[in-house]
Amino acid sequence: MKRILAPSILSADFKVLGEQMQLCADGGAEYLHFDVMDGMFVPNISFGIPVLECVKGFAGMVMDVHLMIQDPIRYVDKFCDAGADIVNVHYEACGDLQAVLDKIHGRGRKAGITIKPATPVEVLVPYLDQAELFLIMSVEPGLGGQAFIPSSLDKIRTLRALLEKRGLHADLEVDGGVYHSNVREVLDAGANVIVSGSSVFRGDILENVSGFMEIFKEY
Ligand code: DX5
Ligand code: ZN
Prior knowledge:
This protein is α/β, with parallel strands linked by helices. 33% of the residues lie in helices and 20% in strands. The chain has one domain: Aldolase class I (TIM Barrel), CATH 3.20.20.70. The protein has an eight-stranded parallel sheet. Helix 1 runs parallel beside helix 8 (205-216). The site of D-xylitol-5-phosphate has 22 residues, from strand 2, strand 8 and helix 7. A divalent metal cation binds at residues 33, 35, 66, 175. This is Ribulose-phosphate 3-epimerase. Its EC number is 5.1.3.1.
């Protein structure tokens, strides 16, 4: 299974966003993780549709949109129109999750289901064959730069086992507090898509991204 880096532009310097995204692409990152916050589902507000329209398709990167918004069904069409390739919605934010997944698939996009640290992976069981990607939050959503919650590793292991038992090869993405120092544990547990904000955008971006790529080669 391919290992992919998804830099979260939440931690980028927006004055020079294009240059920083180019460094991510040059280093080998294939996804761009796009954190949308509504001030309701999470306390913060980040950025949204006009910014996605501006960065979509940049350097051929896959736009991995993480919607931290209440009732995301209201905005699926708008984010698809704006350039989302993967639409991640929170299990906790959806009234009718199946309807949201159907809407994303109806637009020909990949659907991701995201769970917060306190949500058990077992809630995903009815949806294992309904999404192309599952995102396990390893910090409380809403803020970059937090510490990885160690119990996330068990959740990753459990989810990968549940998928394998059914012969499913969905992507398993992990978001929050992942650094060069702990990414092997996350990969060993069964994740294959790594979101990284601080550990890419703090310091030398090209070096940081290349460091992740070197580690991915071990797998
Ligand atoms: C948190 C976001 C994350 C975050 C990751 O709500 O979903 O994508 O920016 O940042 P780091 O890697 O700094 O924990
Ligand atoms: Zn995210």
